[in-house]
Each structure stands twice: as C-alpha cells, then as structure tokens.
Amino acid sequence: MSIIFDDKVKTITLQTKNTTYQMKIDRQGVLLHTYYGEKTDDTDKSYMICYRDRGFSGNPYEVGRIDRTYSLDILPQEYSCFGTGDYRISALKVKNADGSRTSCLLYESCEIREGKYSLPGLPAAYGTKEEAQTLTVTLRDCETGLKVCLYFGVFEEQDIITRAVKIINEGEGAVMLQKAASLSMDWQTGDYEWLTFYGRHTMERNLERSRIMHGVQSVGSVRGTSSHQHNPFIMVCDGSTTEEQGDCYGFSFVYSGEFLMEVEKDQMDQTRLVCGIHPENFEWKLESGESFVTPEIMMAYGKGFGSVSRIFHQMIREHICRGEWKHKRRPVLINNWEGTYFHFTGDKLEAIAREAADLGVELFVMDDGWFGKRDDDASGLGDWYPNEEKLGCTLKELGERIMALGMQFGIWFEPEGISEDSDLYRAHPDWAVAVPGRKPGLSRNQLVLDFSREDVQDYMIRRLKEILHNAPISYIKWDFNRSICDKYSRALPQERQGEMAHRFVLGLYRVLEELTKTFPHILLEGCSGGGGRFDAGMLYYTPQIWCSDNTDAIERLQIQYGTSFGYPVSAMGAHVSAVPNHQTGRVTPLSTRGCVAMAGTFGYELDVNRMTAAEREEVRSQIEMFKKHYDLIQYGEYYRLSSPVEGSATVWEMVSSDGGEALVSAVYHHVRSNPVPVYVKLGGLREDSMYRLELTGVPEERTLPINSKEHFFRQGHLVSGAALMHCGLMVPEALNGFQAWQIYLRAQSCSTVQASMSLS
Ligand code: GLA
After folding, report:
1. What does 714-727 look like in DSSP terms, one character per residue?
2. What spacing in Å lies between the alpha carbon of 479 and ligand 1's midpoint?
3. Fewest Cβ atoms nearer than 10 Å: which of 147, 352, 435, 603?
4. Where does 320-446 have alpha helices with state H?
5. Contact, 592 vs 553, CB < 8 A?
6. Per-residue burial over 540-562, b = 16 or more CB atoms within 10 Å of its CB, e = otherwise
7. What per-residue confidence (pLDDT) applies to 700?
8. Is the CATH number of domain 643-759 2.60.40.1180?
9. Residue 580: cis peptide before it, omega within 30 degrees of 0
C-alpha cells in the first residue's frame, strides 16, 4: 500500500520504493507538508516544525491572541495561497467575486483509490491499478466556497509522485484565477542549489547550477511554448550532490505551454518551490459551478543526478509515451532538410531515398516545402495541399515510389503556423493570432494560427486527416517555428483573453489526440525550430522530438547532455549531417557524427548521393551497428560519465538493466597535445562478472599506433565489473580531432572466463 492515511495523528504518507512523502492536517485544518526524501516510516514528521513567535510574521485570527507562534508565513504547506499572511511565493491567487484576492484553504476530506487519475484534455502519466494509486485531498475556502482538489499519483515501483490540482468555483459569483500552480513544495531544512536548463535556438538545454539564494529566483516561458530559452524540467539538490551521490529532486512539468518554476529561500532559510502555468499571461474566469484543472507535474527523489535522470527516463518511456510506438522499433530515418532545404522535386527526393534505402535507412522524411506555394519561408504556411507541380506527381504517388524502395514515407507539417501570403490567410484573416487594430509581430515571416479556437482545430483535424487518409504516410514531423506574441483570440470575449495562451495548448493537444487516435500506426516526431518545445507534455503525443536545429556533433554533445537530465535517449531526435556543418562550419569525422547521433533516435539529414563510396560504406556499418545495439541504446540505463564542458572528452554509457552488456561512447570535444588520459568509472555493471571490451565502429583501414591504448581492447582482455566501476576505464587516446570511440562490453559466461584464463 503506497498511500497511508493515519486518522489519529492526521498524517497522509505516500511511499514509493525508495522515497517517502508526507503531509499533515494540523489543528487549524491547514494541510502541512512535513517531508519528502529518502524512504523512511510513516510516523508523524511534524515534530520537525519549529513554532516560535517571529516578528512581522502574523497569525491567523483564530489563533492570533492565544498562540503567536503559529504563522502561515513560516509553516511548510502543501498548497500555498496568496493573501493569507504567507508572504512567500504562492501557488494560488484568485480574484474573488467581491474583488478581494485572499484565499484560505482548509482541509475537508481525502480519498484513496487504485490506479492513476487522468486529466481531461491534458497529457498525464498513466498507470494501471497494479502500477499506481491516486490520492485526492480536498481543501476549501469556507468564505468563498472555492474548492481545491489536490491530486497525487503514486507510482511505487517507478519512485515517481505526480501532482495536479482541480479548482472548482462552488461559490456564487464568478472568480478569476490569476495563478494556479500545479505544485508548491517546502523544505524546512537544507541549503539547496538548483539545476536549470537555459538556451536559445540551436543551443538548447545548457545546464546551469546555481545556489538558491535568499529571495526569489525563477525560470520560465511566456512564449506560448515551453521554449528553447528555458526547459520545464529542473532539479533541486544539496550543494554536495554529484552524478552518483547526494540528495537530488527532479521536477518535470507535463506541459508544452508557458510555465514558471520559482524558488525562494525565506527568512528562516527554508526553501519553497512553486511550479505551474506562467501567471503573467494567465487569467481564467470561473463562473459559479465551473472548474479548472492544472497540468501535471512529476517529481522524483534520488541519490545523485544520474539516478534521478534514470527515474525520469523510465517514467517517460513507460508511463508518458503511449500507443503503438511506445515499444515499437523506431525506424532509422533520412530527412531531406539539410540535404535540399526547399529546393527539391519528387525525382530528387526519390534519388536520395533510393541510395539511403540501399544503405539500410528505413524511413524517408520529406521536410518543409512540399505544399502550397512554398519555396522559401515567406509564403504557403497553412495551405496543406501538396504542390504536385513541384513534386511532379501526387503525394500518394510519391509515397508509393518511396515505399517501392522498401522504405516508409514521412512528411513535415507546421499546422500552428500561417503565412500572410497563403490562401488560408486570405480566406480567414481572423484565424491568425493578432490584437485587433494592431499589426501582429512577425517571426520567420509568419503568423500563428489561433489554435485556441475550436473551429480552427476542427478545420485542421479535417485537413490533416484528409491528407493522411490519401497517402501512405507513416511518420509526421510536427513543427512550430516561432514564439507567440500579441496573444489575443477573436473567438474569446474580452474578460477571457487571459485564457488564450492555455487554450492554445489545449487546442494543440486536442488536435494531436485526435490524430494519434485515428492514425495509431503513424509515428509522430515533435519539433519547434529544433528543441523549442521539448517537454514531457509533447512526449505524450510524440514519443520523439527533434532535439535541436544544431546538428554539429560537438555542440550536440552539450545539447544532448543537458537534455538527458530530464529525458530519455528514445525521445531525442538526432541526425548525422554533412560537413562542414551548416550551423557552425565545423568539420568532424563521420564516425563522430554517427556516434553522437546514436545517442538519440538515430537518422541522417544530408544528401547521401553527395557522399563518397567510402563514406557510404561507413554509413552502412553505422546503421548496422545501431540496429544491432538498438535495445541497449534506446532502453538501456543511461549514465553520464563526463561533462562536455569540462576536460577533453564527453563520455556516456548505456547499460542493459541486468548489467549484462553496455555501450560506452566517448567523443573528444577538446584535443590537446601530450594529453592527460581520460578516465571514467562505469555504472550499472555486475560487480562479479568479467567483461570483454570491444572497440567498435573503428574503420578497418585505420592503423593503430602500437603503443595505443587500443591495443588493450584488441587483445581482448577481460576486466571485472567491480574494477570498471570502482577503478575505472581509460578511454583510448584521440588519433585525430574530435575523435569518437565506442566500446562495447559484454559480461562473459563462467566457461568463457575460465577458458580465457587458462589461455593466458
Ligand atoms: C524547423 C525545423 C527544421 C526544418 C525547418 C523547415 O527549423 O527545426 O528541422 O524542419 O523548420 O522549415
């Protein structure tokens, strides 16, 4: 039983395999938060709370004259409210019917049930009765009638607790929600740091570790999407936490729109975290009887960043990603974007596909430029009708030509975008997001289609279904190439304009839900100028997301490293592209580009016809290698062994859950003369097994210096798991700039070990 309600002491304890979370209903009826962290028992932890009269931290009226030590300004709470004398950041702010902004929530009831709650219209982790339990704690503001249900989903095996909130107006007049966060979390003790992932277009999710100082710090997005600039995944940790040890908490917002994650260290050195929809663009009207449901947030606690990342990897793979593609082998793809940009014909695409098919590529993706008038980014968005003149055939025929090569066929869409120069805009100028009377801001020459409108959603569902029914399409790249400004919807009344940004995301989710239900065989890949909408919300619909428009292998090390803190390899779209790289001009070896793209949903993005015969053969063997180790790469436990911004090599490891095999990849991001050797300690192996180490992916003709460390691998030495994990492994030296090594390890059976010992 993972949820325990102790009616005598009024505690509610959530237990997962390795963690405990506890709350307590105190004598005033306030729902306190008493503990989250390493697993312990379910005894009352409220003895840790220090009650003391603190100047200028007031007291609720009921206790004020008798107990000045009781103050909401100090107490750790489950869902903090604005206006009650808790001056820290709050989770809920409501403009009540009388114009006041105070809410005081007190405990009313709680309910425990088997299985995981779901959230209508929103993505959320799912779990059967065997996998998850749901706790609903109901709070109420007795003065206004506002009811707040706190949902907790407990995934015991996964070590994940989810949270979401439903707010119901059971009062008489309409109220305005001005802030409705999904989570508020208090730590009474500890001195914390937090890991955030900032970035920009083509350089997403850079890790930043900062101390949580007195006052408020935050990351978020007001761009309509989760954004390139900040990611809705963070970690909070102890100052001493490393990859493998130390207290670490992870928080992943299952939402693709505007978000805010705030931390505050208060006057008593306590830390509060509040996460949810960004309140700046948000105001939601609740008429009497209406309700609002917040998006969900997932949280995990573990020792070290690595273990918390691995919890999220598994959680996203098993309880967020859905449908046929959850466990189905994803095809190795080739995308024509960097190969041709907008300049292609059906014949040119077929020629690329033919060569790629011969090398083992399984899916051909036709990117931007196949529809309407679209030879650059100035026109055509919204006209989702194939340009048969450009293709030289119908979409169906092109799909069939690709399939005749033994490949699947996929295409690119950007349904939320609209060009002013498009038939759709000319027919429905009011469908574009704009403030009446003002010229809307442009970005990449385009406007935004108002997905908050039901008629727009219906139109797009119809249009996309027609295309998908009429051509043999088995993959969609769903792109969105700008941030949203001028947020206003002509379909909403004046007092509901603050709902537009969230309704836009709900509209997007509705369209995606409808398509994934109707075409379960189609694999969707999310994209937003690369990784501008890389979040657990999108992964509910699109099990993979194009990680970045930056395909430079060396910069990708950093982008994929940052992304790996919150998201699994199976979610990260990664391609081998041509050199000099189109974003940086850098030249890296093909083997390095292959090695880096194999830390994602492997594919190619170049014109294979422009490669030399030797390069093509190398591509063939890369694909063979990826297919051979597919399960290990996509489902293995992921270990970050070194950082791309320190030292000279970035090293990571994928190891099978039973520790039987592992693939270690190392890329030299900084080559030095007379180099200091790179040592890493592996993870997840069996202490007492012997492993054979094999260097893979090294082109045959490359001769190795006789004193090279590679010799060690060539001689087929056996090394114990304990040695590899505690003493470490020396990465072979770089033979050229940006060298990559892939080392495959397999645990040997006892007889092999004995035979090899008797030989040596
Ligand atoms: C975005 C995507 C690219 C490509 C272009 C097409 O930038 O991230 O991969 O699809 O759009 O316009």
Report:
1. HTT-EEEHHHHHHT
2. 7
3. 435
4. 337-340, 346-359, 388-391, 395-403, 423-427
5. yes
6. bbbbbbbbbbbbbbbbbbbbbbb
7. 46
8. yes
9. yes
Asked whether 728 and 680 are in contact (CB, 8 A), the reply is yes
Nearest to 441, CA basis, from 479, 483, 493, 503: 483
Structural tokens at position 384: 């989702």
Question: Which of 228, 341, 445, 549 has the most ligand 1 atoms within 8 A of CB, as the residue to mutate?
Answer: 549
User: Do residues 73 and 57 make contact, with C-beta atoms less than 8 angstroms apart?
Assistant: yes
Task: From 325, 381, 343, 334, select the one nearest 571 (Cα to Cα).
Answer: 325
Distance CA 317, CA 313 (A): 6
pLDDT single digits (tens) 168-203: 999 999 999 999 999 999 999 999 999 999 999 999
| Tens of pLDDT, residues 244-256 | 999 999 999 999 9
- Do 3-319 and 643-759 fold alike per CATH? no
Q: How many helices (H) and strands (E) does the chain have?
A: 17, 39
Q: Classify domain 333-546 at the CATH topology level.
A: TIM Barrel (3.20.20)
Where along the chain do its domains lie?
3-319, 333-546, 643-759
Residue 21 has pLDDT above 50, yes or no: yes
374 Cα: distance to centroid of ligand 1 (angstroms): 13
CA 613 to chain centre: 38
φ, ψ of residue 303 to 5 degrees: the values are -95, 110
State which of 340, 527, 542, 604 you would mutate to test the pocket of ligand 1, scoring each by most atoms of that ligand within 8 A of its C-beta: 527
Q: Is 370 in the pocket of ligand 1 (CB under 6 A)?
A: no
Q: Is 615 a catalytic residue?
A: yes
Indicate whether residue 527 lines ligand 1 (CB < 6 A).
yes
Q: CATH code for 3-319?
A: 2.70.98.60
Q: Which of 200, 337, 546, 548 to mutate to test the pocket of ligand 1 (most atoms within 8 A of CB)?
A: 337
Is the CB of 412 inside a 6 Å radius of any atom of ligand 1? Answer: yes
pTM for the model: 0.97
Catalytic residue among 338, 535, 552, 710: 535
Catalytic site residue 653? no
